[in-house]
Amino acid sequence: MASILVVEDHPLFVQSLVRLLKDRGGYNVSSVASGEAALQQLGDGTQFDLVMIDVSLPGMSGIDLVEEIHEKKPQLPCLMVSGHMATHYVHQSMEMGARGYILKEDI
Fold it and tell me: Which of 12, 19, 28, 35 counts the most CB atoms within 10 A of its CB?
């Protein structure tokens, strides 16, 4: 079973996304609310097949998080999940190593 780490700070959205991924997708899902917490979880040896990251996070931005993950674990795919529709967020995310960009409203 594939494992997904969701990095999202909005409680209602993360609860809905985690439930959707578990119930409909059958995935093993963990969630954290900040980039710093994500880096800690990724560094403790827990293996994930995908990281889904919000662009706007407290502290470290999601785009900065993608860059750090891509430097440390380039094989780990990161997918941005955001409410920001501006193309510069998409371009920055992809330049830092994200493999895709999904708008929250499209989920």
Answer: 35
